[in-house]
Amino acid sequence: MEIKLEKAETLKEKPDSSTLGFGKIFTDYMFMMDWNIDKGWYNQRIVPFANISLHPASTVLHYGSEIFEGLKAYRRKDGKVQLFRPIENIRRMNRSAERLCLPQIPEDMAMEILTTFVRLEQDWTPDAEGTSLYLRPFMFGNDETLGVHAVHNATYVIIASPVGSYYKEGINPVKIMIEDEDVRAVRGGTGYAKCGGNYAASNRAGERAEKKGYSQVLWLDGVERKYIEEVGAMNVMFMIGDEIVTPMLSGSILPGITRMSCLEVLRKEGYKVSERLLSIDELADAMKNGTLKEAWGCGTAAVVSPIGELCYKDVKYTVNNGEIGKVTQHLYDTLTGIQWGKIEDTFGWTQEI
Ligand SMILES: *Cc1c(COP(=O)(O)O)cnc(C)c1O
């Protein structure tokens, strides 16, 4: 595979790394390639970051054939840049693609593209505490027809954005509203795929929660509104007594790489960890009788996000006095330590570029 480079005439000025937000500033270049059902992947290119021109009938604009990934490049203290478990993002993107009838990208090709692009743009990886270069690979169906079918043409793109620390003001536990009306996904649907459509379906509940002063919703299952699934766009974990419980992957839950990493760290350290069904009634009992010790969300953006309050059917429950718990803090320290190269990576998760 040859990746052509179209040089930008001028390069942008890099932002001050202490003032970064999320996903507003983009680097000089983006990667693009196209796919056709007969030709396969072709025209691999790195081009100056710019708008994308689409046919008005392009599939993605009408039928939502879109999937994405999110991962970060981290600047270590020694100045080198590294990725965290990128092969897992590549594999998940292929699983998402399979679900939405979008094309597969061979793993070695996807890895070569990712590392080539990050190597080119690595100077954009900020170095202030907690900052990183957020990478957003995405793929969309791009047939120029309104006919409905699995696409014959698709486009794959990677853009990159230097992002600030998620916790500029320290790790403050968030308030979560348990959503018992809208659902994010159903088994048999696209819940396990990282696709834009899942987000479009989530926004209404998220808006309602925000209006009531909550930062995210806790999703329940789509059939019975009984079992806990995720929190906002993160996976969720609870410490009930001495057991750490997270909903098992049943098809409607996104298999997070942070989730998987938390479980691997906890199991290695001898914690009792269960991936199982967790009903809202069991959680409500644990909140009432004080056995719910800690609760947190986990995902690439925040790493872990402690939950300080849960509201279910207008009853409010405080978790761990609204403070971050020991296990939550420990997971945060361990994962961020490995990601930014501050502690030894005994798992072999990091990849220097
Ligand atoms: C991306 C995502 C997550 C977290 O996945 P990570 O790989 O840990 O970043 C969890 N839930 C949803 C709905 C997501 O889209």
Task: Describe the structure concisely for a colleague.
This protein is α+β, with helices and mostly antiparallel strands. The chain has helices spanning 59-63, 86-99, 107-121, 196-211, 257-268, 280-288, 326-339; strands at residues 4-5, 29-36, 40-48, 66-68, 71-75, 81-84, 132-141, 153-163, 174-179, 216-220, 228-231, 235-240, 243-247, 272-276, 292-299, 303-312, 315-318, 350-352.
Summarize the topology.
Blueprint: E1 4-5, E2 29-36, E3 40-48, H1 59-63, E4 66-68, E5 71-75, E6 81-84, H2 86-99, H3 107-121, E7 132-141, E8 153-163, E9 174-179, H4 196-211, E10 216-220, E11 228-231, E12 235-240, E13 243-247, H5 257-268, E14 272-276, H6 280-288, E15 292-299, E16 303-312, E17 315-318, H7 326-339, E18 350-352
Parallel strand pairs: 1-3, 9-10, 9-16, 13-14
Antiparallel strand pairs: 2-3, 2-8, 4-7, 5-6, 5-7, 6-18, 7-8, 10-11, 12-13, 12-15, 15-16, 16-17
Describe this structure in words.
There is one protein chain. This protein is an alpha+beta fold and 353 residues long. Strand 5 and strand 6 (81-84) form a beta hairpin. It has helices spanning 59-63, 86-99, 107-121, 196-211, 257-268, 280-288, 326-339, and strands at 4-5, 29-36, 40-48, 66-68, 71-75, 81-84, 132-141, 153-163, 174-179, 216-220, 228-231, 235-240, 243-247, 272-276, 292-299, 303-312, 315-318, 350-352. The protein has seven helices and 18 strands. 43% of the residues are buried.
